[in-house]
Design a protein that fits this description.
The structure holds 2 protein chains of 2 kinds.
Chain A (H helix, E strand, L loop, with lengths): L1 E5 L6 H7 L3 E4 L4 H7 L20 H13 L3 E6 L6 H18 L3 E4 L2 H9 L4 E3 L8 H10 L3 E3 L6 H10 L4 E7 L21 H7 L2 E5 L4 H16 L11 H6 L4 E4 L6 H19 L4 H7 L6 H4 L14
Parallel strand pairs in A: 1-2, 1-9, 2-3, 3-4, 4-5, 5-6, 6-7, 7-9
Chain B lengths: L1 E4 L6 H5 L2 H5 L10 E5 L4 H5 L4 H11 L2 E5 L8 H14 L2 E6 L2 H7 L6 E4 L13 H4 L2 E2 L7 H8 L1 E6 L5 E3 L7 E6 L1 E5 L30 E5 L8 E4 L2 E5 L4 E3 L5 E4 L2 H10 L3
The chains are: A alpha/beta, B alpha/beta.
Chain lengths: 319, 273
């Protein structure tokens, strides 16, 4: 299994490589794109957060890709906005894809069928973004038939479901969410903007005044509903971790473990790479899941994080 | 043409009592000619649709046409959902199906007698009532550019859109007809249902696509900032924003798909609930 990490500061390349990362993904900004298509037309899912999540211009990431490749790591570029107009796709086809191929990019992470089509025509390896909503084997097969071989499955799928998809469509490279930043909604179908001026939709829902309306006047029902709400608001997926699922991921033949957080501080991403690598080494010595779960290293903030499965990507392993 | 969207909100008890009948006599709904049943967002709701004989009786009396809406099905429910689709198509006089993902689109387009609509989950242009500069603008959805390819491959009849801004430019190079959802625009959804967890022990809460007791039929949430510039509703697995229908240029909507949520809640409070 490979470790895939986000990059937002080019000076982290060497450190991430030495810690054991195998693959890096990154996005970019382009002022000319913004001039042409406006401020609300995103190049990638994190464009709304501006330079916070996309530090570098397109010409700069071409250099960065070469630097990543020189450290023997793969480099993937995210082109995973909700939707692109035909004109935007023509722009990407003409201005970005030839240059990315020339720079030696390992693949592009795409969010639409049209984008996948032009990327494949440009000879690029295509990764099906979680934005494509690969919730079942029929959907995976659909994109497989287009020629896509690497698939990122949604973070709101259970391990059992991921394994079922893998079994039904065996000839794919499977990428799974592994560390940091759990979402409470679907990556693919959360269509509110993620922007500096308003934040994410889930962030707003956590902070806005709210009225819970029930058809029951029963105290116990209201109590249970409100307690449920408090747990959801305050504890569910503020962070996320899939470390305990490593054994099952190896068993099902996962290709790549995705550490997310393109806007996060590099030090915490580095810590996640380090502990993942250590646990992968432990995993190699374990004959069973039970043994792995006994010997594995818990994340540094496990005192808070490892409680009742509320920060687990895959809580079914422990709970 | 006005259609009534009962997806995700219709319960068997509404049909067994007088609620559904009363609902369909409400003035702003009474002129509708088609009902949408099923779910846009939840395979659990879809699998638990246990009111086929009651809905059959209702449409027999009122002569409604019927659209079946199929949500995106999570892998563990895929086989059972396909059985449920077959069962519903056998039992009810469905003349069109709304699909929400490419897997189901590909599968159902092979059935010649069924017309296919692209559901609102295909329409992925950003929408955000929290951003007035965006919401109160004129936009041409990039989604409309995708219709040509899908039309040629799958023979799409209608494409369903949400009210994402004040003025929508509907320039469309195809003969795919456009339908508009209201009075809510869909904002976000996911495979994890907050309400399904209400009765579960803490360590089993918030699991993807968990089984439920259709808690969504007994609870919803309203969110509003101070001052209340906008309203968000969490209904079932989805969050919506209340929105007026947009003005249109370079085209028009040939169908409106109205979700009578407020009317349903009012009737349920006065009736058996």
């Amino acid at each position: 299994m490979k470790i895939l990490v986000p990059l937002n500061h080019r000076e982290d390349i060497a450190a991430f490589s030495s810690l054991g990362a195998d693959e890096i993904y990154l996005g970019f900004y382009d002022e000319k794109w913004e001039e042409r298509f406006g401020t609300y037309a995103d190049i990638n899912r994190m464009s709304g957060f501006g330079r916070l999540a996309n530090q570098y211009s397109f010409s700069e990431i071409l250099e960065i890709i070469q630097s990543i490749r020189s450290h023997n790591m793969d480099a993937f570029v995210t082109m995973n906005a909700n939707v692109y107009s035909t004109e935007a796709l023509r722009w990407i086809e003409a201005r970005y894809f030839p240059a990315l191929a020339e720079a030696g990019v390992s693949g592009v992470i795409v969010s639409t069928e049209s984008m996948a089509d032009i990327a494949l025509k440009a000879g690029l390896q295509v990764v099906a973004s979680t934005m494509l909503g690969l919730y079942n084997s029929d959907i995976v097969r659909y994109y497989y038939s287009m020629g896509i071989r690497r698939m990122i499955v949604p973070r709101d799928l259970s391990l059992c479901e991921i394994a079922m998809i893998r079994e039904k469509v065996p000839d794919i490279d499977l990428e799974v969410f592994f560390m940091r930043n759990g979402c409470v909604f679907s990556d693919s179908y959360c269509l509110g903007t993620h922007r500096k001026e308003c934040g994410s939709t889930c962030g707003s829902l956590r902070s806005l005044p709210k009225t819970i309306v029930t058809s029951s006047s029963d105290f116990q029902y209201r109590h249970d509903a409100e307690l449920n709400d408090l747990l959801y608001q305050n504890y569910f997926h503020h962070d996320a971790c899939g470390m305990c699922a490593l054994y099952q991921m190896k068993e099902m033949g996962v290709t790549s473990l995705k550490i997310v957080g393109r806007a996060d501080v590099p030090g915490s991403v580095a810590e996640d790479i380090r502990i993942t690598k250590e646990n992968m080494a432990i995993l190699e010595q374990c004959a069973s899941e039970k043994e792995y779960l006994e010997r594995m290293i818990l994340p540094r903030n496990s005192y808070r994080q490892c409680k009742l499965g509320l920060s687990c990507y895959y809580p079914e392993v422990r709970f | 043409m006005k259609c009534i969207n009962l997806c995700d909100i219709l319960d068997k008890s509404d049909l067994q009592g007088d609620i559904a009948e009363e609902l369909l006599q409400t003035p702003c709904i009474a002129d509708a000619g088609r009902l949408y049943i099923g779910s846009y967002f939840c395979s659990q709701y879809f699998l638990k649709m246990d009111f086929l004989s009651e809905i059959k009786k209702l449409i027999g009396q009122k002569h409604y046409s019927l659209t079946l809406v199929i949500p995106i099905i999570s892998e563990k429910d895929l086989a059972r959902s396909k059985e449920q689709i077959r069962h519903i198509l056998d039992e009810l006089p469905i003349d069109e199906v709304t699909v929400n993902d490419v897997g189901m689109l590909s599968a159902l387009s092979a059935i010649p007698q069924i017309k296919i609509n692209l559901g609102r989950l295909f329409f992925k242009d950003a929408r955000d009532i929290r951003l007035p500069a965006y919401y109160h603008s004129t936009l041409r959805p990039a989604f409309l550019d995708q219709l040509s390819d899908l039309r040629s491959r799958y023979g799409i009849q209608y494409a369903e859109l949400d009210p994402i801004c004040s003025v929508m430019d509907l320039r469309n190079e195809t003969d795919v007809k456009l339908a508009l959802h209201g009075p809510f625009g869909y904002l976000t959804t996911g495979n994890i249902c907050k309400y399904a967890s209400i009765s579960k022990d803490i360590q089993y809460k918030f699991r993807p696509n968990a089984t439920c007791n259709k808690e969504c039929q007994r609870i919803f949430e309203i969110y509003a900032p101070t001052p209340p510039d906008y309203e968000l509703y969490r209904i079932g697995r989805a969050v919506y924003f209340a929105s007026a229908a947009p003005e249109t240029i370079n085209g028009s909507f040939e169908r409106s798909i109205y979700a009578p949520f407020h009317e349903m809640v009012k009737l349920r409070k006065e009736g058996s609930l």
